[in-house]
Design goal:
Main location: Golgi
Structural class: alpha/beta
EC number: 5.1.3.6
Bound molecules: nicotinamide-adenine-dinucleotide
Number of strands: 13
Strand content: 5-15%
Helix content: 40-55%
Oligomer: single chain
Protein name: UDP-glucuronate 4-epimerase
Shape: globular
Distance between the termini: 131 Å
Order of helices and strands: HHEHEHEHEHEHEEHEEEHEEHEHHH
Subunit structure: Homodimer.
Number of helices: 13
Radius of gyration: 30 Å
Subcellular location: Golgi apparatus, Golgi stack membrane
């Protein structure tokens, strides 16, 4: 019998080989993890670079309550911003259909005043292109519905922000606008205490951005823009006239509008831009703004909720010069018609250009208590009134417009009194929100308030 084979060597060899295999597989694992890590890092860097270049943050403040929608994808049939079909839509919307018609860029076109003005201009044959960021300061679905209404009249709204210089330049490359009706803004007096930066961004930075693009455009457009009666602030002279002092704003909103008036002066002075500021006085009507008292009073009265009615500190009634939307639209169109040309080109002034400011009010202030009683009659419902002292939130106790200047220069003459205007508003409100109970039938309401009664 031979001696058993010596296996110890083989075992050692196998152990050694398995050790080497383990080392190799660990090395392989390490190498592949490194490779994976590097690839992930590279992909992450590429993605960061891509998003930084394509989606620059418009605003750095995270407290911004109104999300900004990027313009790249348009909500209708357009393709990417700047693409051929987008340009076609922009051009088609902005082309006038009457001899010597205007080509108007309306900013804030999905807003209350902007949507009404866009329709009025389009109806008389002007070309209208809208711009709006559809922010959510109030229910954006109302803005979308206004957009739908405008689309039915061949008005296209570019979805974008005033602060997007590249977008504005592109729009002006495609269309040689004769006019800009600049209505986009952060509106509302009280919201400025919650989100002050939104006022600075839209009403100051956004306005400057727009003026920068207008000043370089060739031809330079004439600009009509919305200031506000709030610039009169703590002014006590009545009725408010354009010559009164406006250096005591009572809210940040008012301060940004006043800043706008000063900025307008500068761009007129340096670049020869024709600029007309319109000081609107509490505009109301169908398709109005849900953040305004007449609107949310209507909602709350119908829902049986309590409404706060402000009194001044000396227990007087708060009153407003409520101005009906159709009167304001006529004022805007009149201001556009008489704007006069900008004189600059290539960013250089060639001569003096018009610089104007006008009140657009109703010349007939109404106490808020009276507004509520008109609504009670129209809604056939008693309001649960809660009379309180006006908090110090930027509101002023009283507004009253003197419109002599606007009447002299473009025949502005408000013709709608509050009862007539509110009846039209309520009619729209109940139909838009599908509310029919309790509200008086249109025929009954009509017989109480004959149409067209003057202010
Ligand atoms: N309605 C009034 O009683 C009243 C009174 C005085 C002044 N104004 C001024 O009139 C103008 C129109 O007011 P309105 O009642 O129609 O308000 P609105 O809020 O209904 O309309 C403004 C529109 O501008 C858009 N917008 C806001 N910031 C923008 C931005 N940075 N870029 C692009 N779009 C932006 C909003 O989405 C909105 O659709 C505003 O300038 C407002 O300050 C209104």
């Amino acid at each position: 019998m031979g001696s058993p084979p010596d296996t110890s060597k083989t075992i050692k060899m196998e152990r050694y080989n398995s050790y080497v295999r383990r080392i190799n597989s660990t090395k392989l694992l390490n190498a592949s993890s490194k490779l994976l890590f590097r690839a992930t890092l590279l992909i992450a860097l590429v993605l960061i670079l891509f998003f930084t270049l394509n989606y620059p943050p418009l605003f750095s403040d995270s407290s911004h309550h109104a999300p900004i929608h990027r313009h790249s994808f348009l909500s209708t049939t357009a393709d990417f911003f700047g693409g051929a079909s987008w340009e076609k839509q922009v051009r088609h919307s902005a082309t006038p259909r009457r001899p010597n018609g205007f080509s108007v860029l309306v900013t804030g076109a999905a807003g209350f005043v902007g949507s009404h003005c866009s329709l009025a201009l389009k109806k008389r044959g002007d070309g209208v292109l809208g711009l709006d960021n559809f922010n959510s300061y109030y229910d954006p679905s109302l803005k979308r519905d206004r957009q739908g209404l405008l689309a039915k009249h061949q008005i296209f709204i570019v979805e974008g922000d005033l602060n997007d210089a590249a977008l504005l330049r592109k729009i002006f490359d495609v269309v040689p606008f004769t006019h800009v009706l600049h209505l986009a803004a952060q509106a509302g007096v009280r919201y400025a205490m919650q989100n002050p930066q939104s006022y600075v961004r839209s009403n100051i930075a956004g306005f400057v951005n727009l003026l920068e693009v207008c000043k370089s455009a060739n031809p330079q457009p004439a600009i009509v823009w919305a200031s506000s009666s709030s610039v009169y602030g703590l002014n006590r002279e009545n009725p408010f006239s354009e010559s009164h002092r406006t250096d005591q704003p009572a809210s940040l909103y008012a301060a940004t509008k006043k800043a706008g008036e000063e900025i307008a002066h500068t761009y007129n002075h340096i670049y020869g831009l024709s600029l007309t500021g319109l000081r609107f006085f509490t505009v109301y009507g169908p398709w109005g703004r849900p953040d305004m008292a007449y609107f949310f009073f209507t909602k709350d009265i119908l829902q049986g909720k309590k409404i706060d009615i402000y009194q001044t500190q000396d227990e007087k009634e708060v009153a407003r010069d409520f101005t009906y939307i159709d009167d304001v639209v006529k004022g805007c169109v009149g201001a556009l018609d008489t704007a006069g040309k900008s004189t600059g080109s290539g960013g250089k002034k060639k001569g003096p250009a018009p610089l104007r400011v006008y009140n657009l009010g109703n010349t007939s202030p109404v106490p808020v208590g009276k507004l509520v009683s008109i609504l009670e009659g129209l809604l056939n419902t008693k309001a649960k009134k809660h009379v309180i002292k006006m908090p110090s939130n930027g509101d002023v106790p009283y507004t009253h417009a003197n419109v002599t200047l606007a009447h002299k220069d473009f025949g502005y003459k408000p013709t709608t009194d509050l009862s007539t205007g509110l009846r039209k508003f309520v009619k729209w409100y109940v139909s838009y929100y599908g509310i029919h109970s309790r509200v008086k039938k249109e025929s009954e309401v009509n017989s109480e308030h004959p149409k067209g009664s003057a202010a």
